[in-house]
Amino acid sequence: MKMKKLLKYLETEYQKKTRQSAILFKRASRVMVRGGSHTLRLWKPYPFFMASAQGAQVRDVDGNQYLDYWQGHYANILGHNPAVIRRALEPYIKAGTFHTGFESSVQLELAEKILASLKQQGLKVRFTTSGTLAATYAVMLAMGYTGREYILKIGGGWHGASPYLLKGVKFRPGQGFNVPDSAGLPSDFHKKILITRFDDCDHLEKTFKKYGSKLAAFILEPFIGVGGFLFCSREYLELARRLTDRYGVVLIFDEIISGFRFCASGVQKLYGVQPDVSLFGKLIGGGQAVAAVVGRSEIMEGCEKPGARKMRVHFEGGTFSSHEEYMRAGLAMVDYLSQHQKEVYPYIGKLAEKLRQGIEKVFKEEALEVVCTGRGNEIVKDSSFFMVNFPKKKIAHKNPEDVWDPERSDVLLREEALKLALLINGVHVVHGGGCLSTAHTEKDVEKTVAAYAEVARIFRKYL
Ligand SMILES: Cc1ncc(COP(=O)(O)O)c(C=O)c1O
Predict the structure, then answer these.
(1) C or N: which end of the chain has fewer Cβ atoms within 10 Å?
(2) 251's torsion region: left (phi>0), alpha (psi -120 to 50) or beta?
């Protein structure tokens, strides 16, 4: 009842300031499913429609300004529309950006840069245009290489809408993460996708003991994104490496969020654990559609020379793969981060810690308990992520169950009420938080903490 009243109040306030967006959404709903193309962007009652974005700010069609922590699905580490990328693209755009369908040398430069950052011998790269495709191809390569059909993934792990990995994404009360997530797949498909618990060494050992010899791949995010902005322990990653080696399983690190986010390489470099295949996306495109599968040559060769008796894995990056414009943007981003890593990562890491502490403090002042996830650990010092959780029990928020089980955490308060309450106060977040960019300033963080304080007062009044 209290929550209903709160949501009603927030929706009314939001509607008052977003009338033009409401009109556009109504129009969009007539021609598009639920009015858009990405469910996460279509929050209730409707999303605002963006007019422009620059640095840390987004302006909507009603003229409202928001401090944005979504930053292009976490792709924009330099903020929206950064000059570094614009400068790199300007001459190319002047000359014409249309797709040619030919190879250009820029992709090879980007591939070289990514490989140089990993400092691991014997790796090869192939580009595609989305993380979903990269994850799909990586699983196909693993299956082709091992001749096995089972995949192990983490409960709460999101690797895009790849059919091979659409299980254990969404938490369902009473069932947890061990449930298929999509219609449209053969009915027993999900039986070959096995789920293990994030950062749980015991469960991993038991699962490998039982299924190790059937597994083609174990795929995980060393820093889990949607699952709660949590870092694996080194012990867990090392165990994953040992077990996959012992059972001949391909170890895939999905670094689509973590790649170039915590250092100018994969977060695997900080952990000192090398997977067989890595997935990169988001940042390596500099705001354009780029993803990469980077893996040991003998596995990657599966898409061209799989050996005499095997069929090749049909990994074609797609019509727009390694589009020159995308590659130039990606190269500019990777170059910039490599050259400025000593400033970029400590800067956003410090800002994020200030924000996390500030948010926890203002909720405490209103006697509301909040736990911010996203903090780094002894390995990753500079984490630029934050997620605001409202625990219902005394829990540590160490795994996706803690973040997504409505018995443990007030998910509705985070996902719906907090979202609208912050929008009303000029801040845009997803899942209660997001990431910092180099475009965010100390002043922005102070303004954001003030917005969370206002939200805490509203919550206190209604709940
Ligand atoms: C860890 C991870 N893997 C894969 C994907 C899918 O990437 P894309 O949205 O580019 O298909 C995402 C998207 O957010 C992700 O966070």
Answers:
(1) N
(2) beta
Together in a domain, 271 and 281:
yes
**What is the CATH classification number for the domain harbouring 218?**
3.40.640.10
Domains in the chain, number: 2
Regarding the beta carbon of 134 and ligand 1, being less than 6 Å apart is answered: no
Nearest ligand 1 atom, CA 281: 10
Residue 391: CB atoms within 10 A of its CB come to 16
CA of 131 from ligand 1 middle (Å) equals 5
Beta bridge partners of 280: 292
Residue at a domain's end among 284, 313, 339: 339
Residues 99 and 159 grouped into a single domain:
yes
Alpha helices in 18-120 (DSSP H): 19-31, 71-74, 83-95, 105-118
Q: Cβ(438) to ligand 1 under 6 A?
A: no
301 and 424 share one domain: no
Q: What is the pTM of this model?
A: 0.98
| Probe residue for ligand 1, chosen from 76, 231, 257 as the CB with the greatest number of ligand atoms within 8 Å | 257
350 and 233 within one domain: no
Which one of 339, 368, 397 terminates a domain? 339
| Same-domain pairing of 389 and 355 | yes
79 lines ligand 1 (CB under 6 A): no
Q: What is the pLDDT of residue 305?
A: 80
Query: What local confidence, expressed as pLDDT, does residue 309 receive?
Result: 67
Q: What is the CATH number of the domain that holds 435?
A: 3.90.1150.10
Mutate to test the pocket of ligand 1, among 37, 133, 158 (most ligand atoms within 8 A of CB): 158
pLDDT tens for residues 81-115?
999 999 999 999 998 878 889 998 999 999 999 99
Place of tokens 């020159």: 324
Q: Is the domain of 193 the same as that of 317?
A: yes
Q: With 70 as the cut, is the pLDDT of residue 245 above it? A: yes
Identity at 203, one-letter amino acid code: H
pLDDT of 272 reads 98
Is the pLDDT score of 145 beyond 80?
yes
Both structure tokens of 283: 């940042």
Cα of 396 to ligand 1 centre, how many Å? 26
| Separation of CA 162 and ligand 1 centre (Å) | 10
For residues 164 and 319, what is the distance between their CA atoms, to the nearest angstrom?
22
Q: Check whether residue 350 and residue 284 sit in a common domain.
A: no
Q: The domain containing residue 292 runs over which residues? A: 83-339
- The residue type at 178: N
SS3 371: strand
